[in-house]
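This is your field. Have a critical look at the following sequence-structure pair:

***
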Amino acid sequence: MRIQAALVERAGAAFTIRDVDLEPPRDDEVLVRMTAAGICHTDLAMRGRWPEKISPMVFGHEGAGVVEAVGAAVGSVRVGDTVALSYRSCGGCDQCTGGHPAYCLRSDLNMRGTRADGSSPLSLDGSAVFGNFFGQSSFATHALAYQTNVVRVPAALSPLIAAPLGCSVQTGAGTVLNVLRPSPGDTVAVFGCGGVGLSAVMAAVSLGCTVVAVDPNPARLELALSLGATDADVTGAHHAIDTTGRPDVITRAIGALRRRGTLALVGLGGKAEFDIMTVMYNGIRIRGVIEGDAAPATFLPQLIDLHRLGRLPVERLVTEYPFTEIEAAAHDAATGKVVKPVLTFG
């Protein structure tokens, strides 16, 4: 079938909307007509360094839409279901069967640009177009996904809310609810108030924690405060979350913890140095977190329930853009003008 997709021709290039061909779903695939897709920092970071040999590429990993076709082996969704898309996992390794699919031993399935067999369902004038990003590539009018990363959501739920649940909201809220699990009254320090950080803020506030937000962007800090955080000096926190991946911020986060406090690292980054004696003498735990250590099939419904109860007001983070304005939306995200741009498809 002929669809429209936002192609990135080479590393760092702009998004260009082109007509491309998409194969029908295989037995294990689900064809989804997109209604919305969030733009995440990961999309922009990968666009900047994506390998030439698997280009042009279609990114996007926070999709929401309606199922239009399913493969013969798919039993969890059916045609007409309203769904949100998340990351892909194999479903069979010990991490997946143990309830931690975010650490799937086949995590390469999210970043290889192809199906597991090396093929791509996308093409342009007979030449391969790469995709399968996080098992979806949702910067397109239609996408092929999989049973493990397609989650049914209520038809009444706005796609502007459903789309970001699959990554940024799941990562931030999951870090709090699944990993740190603070008690009411605990202090949680959140470093970086983008989509992930603010989702962590909302989740921690919903648990009755004292939340301290740290961000150099005044507008984002103001939004964090309106969601229930404070901007007090950070000292003696039970838990800290770094969403920036910056070494200087990580050092500051370690210094903000009380003895036996825990730091969760969720931001993309390179190398960071810290004082071993500070960590050792204070019994500080440092924990890496992917996708909030969440299993989307069970965790996204929990997030939807929190939203329904008014405890996770995701709409406060969202700015809507038509799909045709994807490059403007990406620019606004990269410059910090908006927190969570969500593309909609007319």
In short: The chain is about 25% helix and 25% strand. The chain has two domains: 2-152+313-344, 170-290. The chain has a mean pLDDT of 97. The first strand starts at residue 2 and ends at 8.
